[in-house]
């Protein structure tokens, strides 16, 4: 069985499409939260998750849009998220927002004898917390689960902490590392982190057509291009 593991799509459909075109033969799909904010394609990305994800959890940005909450972003990313969220609210209907509200904070994905624990940011369920390695290890120890899958940081890693394997697939739509769509695969009892090129310029062009402030457009362009 091949499991596709995605996180932090952030309304970037060309990035999502590139992953799907690369991994056409997956059997099951896990999504670790944050389908909205930042990018120009919230409707397309949310429709995909609604229809195709086998297991999913809510991210801080999903919660912010669905429940009119603060997503607790910091610095310039806070400004970017607020601007795009207000725009996204006009593009998504009430059923979309209801789906966002219905997403669980944590869940377990079962594949045969294997069980994966899913949460967006913190193993213990805080959806907006950034953990240093010591904090992460403490939470992993308290959770005591063999496989733990997290998103939120937009940085890929596989760590072995306590008796657990902790995986972060990185961000499909807004990587903090490279101008590629990042994700992970579970196949043949092994986890692999991967990244593929995508049409960044199409995402930027669509973002530039949006009604968000120009400084947010330019700021997000720099993030997407890693300028």
Describe how the helices and strands are arranged.
Elements: E1 2-6, H1 13-22, E2 28-31, H2 42-52, E3 55-56, H3 60-67, H4 76-91, H5 94-102, E4 106-111, E5 114-119, H6 133-143, E6 147-149, E7 156-161, E8 164-169, E9 181-187, E10 190-196, H7 200-208, H8 214-225
Parallel strand pairs: 1-2, 2-3, 5-6, 6-8
Antiparallel strand pairs: 1-9, 4-5, 7-8, 9-10
Helix pairs in contact: 3-5, 4-8, 7-8
**First CA to last CA: what distance?**
38 Å
User: What is the CATH top level name?
Assistant: Alpha Beta
Report the sheet with the most strands, covering strand number, pairing sense and barrel closure: 5 strands, mixed
Question: In DSSP terms, counting alpha (H) and pi (I) runs of 4 or more, how many helices?
Answer: 8
The percentage helix is 25-40%
Specify Rg, calculated over alpha carbons. Answer: 16 Å
Report the principal-axis shape: globular
Question: Care to give the gist of this entry?
Answer:
The protein is built from eight helices and ten strands. It has helices spanning 13-22, 42-52, 60-67, 76-91, 94-102, 133-143, 200-208, 214-225; strands at 2-6, 28-31, 55-56, 106-111, 114-119, 147-149, 156-161, 164-169, 181-187, 190-196.
What does this structure look like?
This protein has 227 residues and is of the alpha/beta class. The mean pLDDT is 97. The protein has a single domain, classed as Metallo-dependent phosphatases (Purple Acid Phosphatase, chain A, domain 2). 38% of the residues lie in helices and 23% in strands. Helix 3 packs across helix 5, helix 4 crosses helix 8 and helix 7 runs antiparallel to helix 8. Strands 3-2-1-9-10 form a 5-stranded mixed sheet. The longest helix has 16 residues.
